[in-house]
Amino acid sequence: MHRLPLNLCKFAARMADPVRQNLKSVSAKATATSLVVNRSLQYRQSSSSTGAADNGNKIPLSKANSNNTTTSSGKHEEEASPLTDKFGRFHSYLRISLTERCNLRCKYCMPEEGVPLTAKDSLLTSDEVLRLAGLFVREGVRKIRLTGGEPTVRKDLTDIVAALKRIPSLESVGITTNGLMLTRQLVGLQRAGLDGLNISLDTLKAAKYERITRRKGWERVIAGIDLAIQLGYKPKVNCVLMKAKPSLISSTIRSYPLLGVRAFSSLSHVDERTGKATMVDVDDKVSTRREAKAQATVYVGPTISSLIESNELKKGDVLSISQMAGIVAAKKTSDLVPLCHNIPLSSIKVETSLNAATHEVHILTKVKCDGKTGVEMEALTAASIAALTVYDMCKSVSHEILIKNIMLVEKTGGKSDYYKLAKKHKKQEHHSDSDPPIVVKRKL
After folding, report:
1. CA-to-CA distance for 358 and 276, rounded, in angstroms?
2. Neighbour-count burial for 112-127, b at 16+ CB within 10 Å, e otherwise
């Protein structure tokens, strides 16, 4: 069943005289945009092997999806309304194309080189989009979906959504997107009032995605879907069905058991039923002695290294202060990382040392507790904040400072122990250092 938005130009032609006069200034721009969209539609039909041919890219209204229409109780008002079609159906759902530009080149949509673009001054401005939306809402539209092209390429998308949400009587504002920009924009769009989103994703395989879209970005789309669910949305995933083996189609459907997205059963911090982020329940776990070690390295360069060694930096003793910062950070881990448990720690040790030969500050953290969950995050947080403190105290001398090798060194307790990486890392360090390092240590 085909599903297309109603043609804005035809609507404008059928509007009552006052509304028609208001639309005159934007109808020419809408016509120019429609021509570009029609060129894209023609390309889709010529390149698709499964699409049934229609009559000049026009699909009769009788084939439109009935979900896009609502029936009013007043039949006489429906017939008089410019939003009532010749079959007597009242349309309360409007789609507005914000741009003809797109950051993908899908094979079924357009040629690799793209399509000729309309001059910017011939396209609808933000004010004209809002004016147009207001006119349609006044006539009975209650749901608006923003499309493209790709709507997220418009820099003012968030402002448009916020302004649409301020229109009285408009109940829902959504977007249809390819998902590439969601990880950057979705939080802002939610704050602006975005109610829903459709995400286009034609395959669950990164390589095939690149072949279809002629662009990379599959991982970003998946991350965008995950973010949408964690923010409380129930995104709909659109897929253009092309020739494929039945087994491939069924396997794709099975991969979308939750709200049209991949399964989360293997992720401990995601609720299997809702797909939302959640804290792990450790009530049934056995309390054991747990310990974790983490490390970080900060390259400071010869000048700063000399100042640290002689303790002549203006902000004070770098090694001692970064040590204290690491201890405080370990205690605050559950405040900094949302899904971490607040664990009563029995011991926190932070060692900082300067290797004058390599001009590096080495940080080693050790955290212990008797509890039902591990302390890896506390050890890693301590190492990270200690490294950032070194940077903060030294940045007035130079910004050529590199924080690196933040990693878990060892973990004991719980279901499994982890220490192999630490041994491997030590062997590599020992092999690479031909001369014994000059080390300055400060302990609390």
Report:
1. 45
2. eeebeebeeeebbeee
The string of pLDDT tens digits covering residues 79-113 is 467 888 888 888 899 999 998 888 888 887 888 88
Show which residues are catalytic: 392
Of the candidates 259, 280, 437, 255, which has an alpha carbon nearest to the alpha carbon of residue 360?
Answer: 437
DSSP characters for 144-195?
Answer: EEEESS-GGGSTTHHHHHHHHHTSTT--EEEEEE-STTHHHHHHHHHHHT--
pTM of the model: 0.46
Instruction: Encode pLDDT of 197-253 as tens digits.
Output: 999 888 888 888 888 889 888 888 988 988 898 888 988 888 776 665 555 555 554
Number of CB atoms found within 10 A of residue 152's CB: 26
Distance, in Å, from the CA atom of 49 to the CA atom of 437, rounded to the nearest integer, reads 68
Q: Residue 347 contacts by C-beta under 8 Å, 6 or more apart in sequence?
A: 366, 367, 368, 369
Packing angle of the helix pair 218-230, 206-213 (nearest 10 deg) = 110
* Location of structure tokens 């820099």: 155
The encoded tokens of residue 254 equal 């099975």
Edge-to-edge strand ranges of the sheet holding 172-177:
93-97, 143-147, 172-177, 196-200, 236-238
What count of residues does the chain have? 444
The DSSP call for residue 407 is: E
Residue 106 CB coordination number (10 Å): 18
